[in-house]
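thought: user wants a sequence for this fold. calling inverse folding tool.
action: design(structure=
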């Protein structure tokens, strides 16, 4: 913690700002790097103490790097989208309209997509009666971005005080993948006509992808509460999922796959269900955002207050290691930026113990090795 404190002091000197008594973020951006190929038998690991790139964030949920070194950050309770600029500034790019926060619902995952020369920001959020995905054109130039008029992409995802899912990501196939929760009604996860407890796959306009396995937007089912989505370089989709009281999961996602909830939780070895590649007791994980670097999946842990690194190169022998246990509190998101990793803490969400400067956007260096 002393090294983090020193980094924060240096950051404040650079920006001329103070975090005392203020909820305004203090942000310094980092340039993306290139890389990410894992040597045979190697696993990517953090090789540095985290450095704070941002402080004073209020319930941050998702961060998306932008070309040129900036980023966009969502705040769950306020519905704000913050722009982290390449020159170290921070500003409000806009507020996602129609966000209704409460319980675990609010503004959740964000993703960017460019189509026919238009840059779009997609956002998953809780509305008055449902969870939904909207998109807004990003107008202006880097350092002065703004949100244009929102367009509806997907509606009708059940919402509740908990189990609202919320992670979104574009796949290498150009489709949008949406992780949802069962919204407190477990049987919905097994109903292929319900969007709850699923991973959905839709076109950028929100239509069901034409080759989906059930003829609708459902890509996989049997999920309790999907919190992280990410692709390895081979195009494989991975998802992290909150369990109930026994096991949290990291799953390799297959089209049409049934991941068992509520019939099973964790590794069950039952016909008809796909087991997770690794499971953890909730006290050690409550896995949220994930990031893939080579054959390593980094998993941000909320209740577990740690970063997991999972080597998935060998499906028959998946291994893991954890880092920063208890040092920075709850971790909500993990994003790969070349050979660096960005982490969002989530100590201001009502379940954590906020520390000075929370919440933070942290950066760590990565290296591959055994």
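)
observation: tool returned 370 residues.
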């Amino acid at each position: 913690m002393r090294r983090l404190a020193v980094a924060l002091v240096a950051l404040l000197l650079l920006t001329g700002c103070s975090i005392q008594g203020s909820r305004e973020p203090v942000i310094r951006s980092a340039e993306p790097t290139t890389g990410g190929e894992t040597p045979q038998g190697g696993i990517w690991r953090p090789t540095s103490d985290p450095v704070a790139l941002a402080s004073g964030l209020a319930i941050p949920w998702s961060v998306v790097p932008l070309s040129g070194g900036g980023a966009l950050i969502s705040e769950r309770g306020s519905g704000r989208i913050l722009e982290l600029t390449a020159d170290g500034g921070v500003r409000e790019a806009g507020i996602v309209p129609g966000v209704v926060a409460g319980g675990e619902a609010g503004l959740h995952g964000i993703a960017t997509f460019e189509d026919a020369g238009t840059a779009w920001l997609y956002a998953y959020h809780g509305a008055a009666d449902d969870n939904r995905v909207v998109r807004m054109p990003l107008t202006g130039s880097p350092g002065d971005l703004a949100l244009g008029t929102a367009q509806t992409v997907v509606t009708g995802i059940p919402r509740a005080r908990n189990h609202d899912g919320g992670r979104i990501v574009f796949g290498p196939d150009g489709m949008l993948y949406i992780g949802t929760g069962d919204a407190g009604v477990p049987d919905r996860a097994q109903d292929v006509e319900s969007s709850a407890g699923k991973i959905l796959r839709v076109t950028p306009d929100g239509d069901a992808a034409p080759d989906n396995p059930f003829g609708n937007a459902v890509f996989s089912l049997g999920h309790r509460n999907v919190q992280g989505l990410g692709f390895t370089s081979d195009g494989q989709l991975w998802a992290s999922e909150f369990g109930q009281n026994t096991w949290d999961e990291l799953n390799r996602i297959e089209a049409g796959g049934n991941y068992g909830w509520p019939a099973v939780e964790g590794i069950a070895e039952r016909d008809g269900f796909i087991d997770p590649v690794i499971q953890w007791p909730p006290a050690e994980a409550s896995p949220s955002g994930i990031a893939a670097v080579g054959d390593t999946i980094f998993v941000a842990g909320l209740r577990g207050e740690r970063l997991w690194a999972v080597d998935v190169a060998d499906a028959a022998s998946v291994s893991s290691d954890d880092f920063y246990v208890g040092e920075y509190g709850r971790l909500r998101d993990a994003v790969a930026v070349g050979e660096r990793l960005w982490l969002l803490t989530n100590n201001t969400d009502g379940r954590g113990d906020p520390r000075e400067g929370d919440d933070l956007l942290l950066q760590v260096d990565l290296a591959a090795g055994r």
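thought: summarizing for user.
answer: Here is the designed sequence. Helices lie at 2-15.
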